[in-house]
Amino acid sequence: MSATDRPAKGQPTATYDSAFLKACRREPVPHTPVWFMRQAGRSLPEYRKVREGVAMLESCMRPELVTEITLQPVRRHGVDAAIYFSDIVVPLKAIGVDLDIKPGVGPVVAEPIRSRADLARLRDLTPEDVSYVTEAIGLLTAELGATPLIGFAGAPFTLASYLIEGGPSRTYEHTKALMYGDPQLWTDLLDRLAAITSAFLKVQIDAGASAVQLFDSWAGALAPADYRRSVLPASAKVFQAVEDYGVPRIHFGVGTGELLGLMGEAGADVVGVDWRVPLDEAAGRVGGGKALQGNLDPAILFAPTEAVEAKTREVLAAAEGLEGHVFNLGHGVMPTTDPDALTRLVEYVHEQTAG
């Protein structure tokens, strides 16, 4: 049974009637739910303390540590959902890709994928490859009770970009050269990554995740025509693969204002919007039948509280009348953000939207 199904006797599961899942389903809510991308991370002193001396990838493979880090922002901020602490390259590491997450740089791949022969290195992901994920989510759901847990994965395009470039990039020259220059290899690569991503999300849902988010962090580098032709089909396969579970599916990218309609077409139930497009305008681009998530500029949190509240009211005003709205930042929490500013923001959104 999925985390959003009602049992046969009609009694809801612990998370079914949460504000977060109601908003994802576009149902009336007692208040606008709030969670933050990267809420479990470097902005919290308690996170920095438990991560001392532990490499990022290693921390993702320790169930007790994952549980503690995931719970920290729930305890501190009172957010309406937890997001599983991991990294989008974890499933790639789990199938044997030689990569590491270097501080200050990000994921670095020892041998980038540039040819058909390289494609053979990407084998299928099995639940046994990520047994620590199953264990951690079991621990988490026991602790979270009625607070939903969001599972997540990297979208095929963003994973392909890391694999092809060998690490973060601002120009994506190798990625785009392969996409334009060898369309069949590109399609085969994204299909392989769609299967790996789908398997990773299924592990999280089977273990108890109440919703999943697909991060296509780098999709904003693409023109709409290229996205539709070369990226959307693989992302759609991921959403289709988990559709029967009945959990809300969220789709998010950065700089994707021109792609919002296409990202909705890929099959998500909720479309994440960064801070560049007001939510009422985003709703018109996405079309009906989708909830929206977003979209306060994360940089505003460095301004005085009055300024944060003013911008928050703007976001909530733009969201008024939407079928469903999950309040979030337009991107992840910045590492030097004052945690108290996040706590105040959660309280303020709850106060402003209480029915």
Write a structural description.
The chain has 355 residues and is an alpha/beta fold. Helix content is 45%, strand content 11%. The chain has a 7-stranded parallel sheet with strand order 1-4-5-6-7-8-9. The longest helix is centred in the middle third of the chain and has 25 residues.
Fraction in helix: 40-55%
- N/C terminus separation: 31 Å
Q: Classify the beta-strand content into a percent band.
A: 5-15%
Biggest sheet features: 7 strands, parallel
Give the overall shape, derived from the CA principal axes.
Answer: globular
Total count of strands = 9
Side by side, the strands of the main sheet go 1-4-5-6-7-8-9
Structural class: alpha/beta
Keyword list:
355 residues, alpha/beta, 9 strands, disordered N terminus
Short description:
The protein has 355 residues and is of the alpha/beta class. It has 16 helices and 9 strands.
Present the secondary structure layout:
Layout: H1 19-24, H2 45-50, H3 56-59, H4 63-77, E1 82-83, H5 90-94, E2 99-102, E3 106-109, H6 116-119, H7 131-144, E4 149-154, H8 156-165, H9 173-181, H10 183-207, E5 211-215, H11 224-230, H12 232-241, E6 249-252, H13 260-265, E7 270-272, H14 279-286, E8 291-296, H15 305-319, E9 325-329, H16 339-353
Parallel strand pairs: 1-4, 4-5, 5-6, 6-7, 7-8, 8-9
Antiparallel strand pairs: 2-3
Helix pairs in contact: 4-7, 7-10, 8-9, 8-10, 9-10, 10-12, 15-16
